[in-house]
Design brief:
Blueprint lengths: L1 E7 L3 E7 L6 E8 L4 H14 L2 E8 L9 H16 L4 E5 L3 H11 L4 H29 L2
Parallel strand pairs: 1-4, 4-5
Antiparallel strand pairs: 1-2, 2-3
Length: 143
């Protein structure tokens, strides 16, 4: 059972996919947004089908004080349209500070600044997914 996570932004969508046991989140790549949301949705839907994804976790950019931002509402609208196109559940996960954490992780790993922007959204998506997977595991095992 593979689970995917999306870090939906204005210009790109970071994608992460779990291993088959839904234990480990792996950065998958980045989808460049087009001027056509339909094309963007189709690309995500194709990825879900191609990789046998059974659930999609969408990072929700909640403000630090817990309120939803304008961007969070845009992400919700995108995710709701996606949910109508695919046959698997779409759930939301708080993604506060994941892009900041991803950028720091890449910098600490020695990624040069000009190369970081190409992978930061996929790494942010993997942080969203790993948080979701760990929380689901704790819930399942009563931890």
């Amino acid at each position: 059972m593979r689970i995917a996570a999306l870090d939906v932004g204005e210009k790109t969508i970071g994608v992460a996919i779990s291993d088959e046991t839904a234990s480990v989140a792996l950065p998958f790549g980045t989808i460049r947004r087009t001027e056509s949301e339909k094309k963007d949705l189709a690309e995500v839907a194709n990825l879900v089908a191609e990789h046998g994804v059974s659930k999609v976790v969408v990072g929700l950019p909640v403000m630090l004080r817990g309120e939803e931002s304008v961007q969070a509402r845009k992400v919700r609208a995108f995710a709701e349209k996606l949910a109508r196109r695919i046959k698997v559940p779409v759930v939301f996960w708080d993604e506060r500070l994941t892009t900041v954490e991803a950028t720091k992780t890449l910098a600490d790993s020695g990624f040069r600044k000009k190369h970081r922007k190409d992978v930061v959204d996929a790494v942010a998506a993997s942080l969203v997914l790993q948080g979701y997977l760990e929380s689901s595991r704790k819930e399942a095992f009563g931890e």
